[in-house]
């Protein structure tokens, strides 16, 4: 099934989608839960499919 909307999302839009802060997103990328894509030097995007998987509970975001 195709994901509606953009395939890559900016950090602010991603944070809003998941209901978390941008700082939390950066912690998630640092922990390896999300992979950031550098589209321009210093400009990052996240895959919508990865965000949807976390939002649907298909990826473990819990404690380690």
Task: Write down how many β-strands occur, each being a DSSP E stretch of 2 or more residues.
Answer: 3
Share of helical residues: 25-40%
N- and C-termini, Cα separation: 31 Å
Number of helices: 3
Shape annotation? globular
Write down the Rg. Answer: 11 Å
Report what the structure shows:
- There is one protein chain.
- The chain is an alpha+beta fold and 64 residues long.
- The chain is 39% helix and 19% strand.
- The protein has a 3-stranded antiparallel β-sheet.
- A hairpin with a 2-residue loop joins strand 2 (36-40) and strand 3.
- The chain is globular and about 30 Å long.
SSE layout:
Layout: E1 8-9, H1 11-18, H2 22-30, E2 36-40, E3 43-47, H3 48-55
Nutshell version of this structure?
This protein is an alpha+beta fold and 64 residues long.
Keywords:
3 helices; 64 residues; three-stranded antiparallel sheet; single chain; 39% helix; alpha+beta; globular
């Amino acid at each position: 099934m195709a994901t509606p909307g953009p395939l890559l999302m900016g950090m602010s839009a991603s944070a809003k989608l998941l209901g978390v802060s941008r700082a939390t997103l950066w912690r998630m990328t640092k922990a390896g839960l999300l992979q950031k894509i550098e589209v321009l030097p210093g400009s990052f995007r996240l895959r919508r499919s990865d965000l949807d998987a976390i939002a649907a509970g298909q990826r473990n975001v819990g404690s380690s």
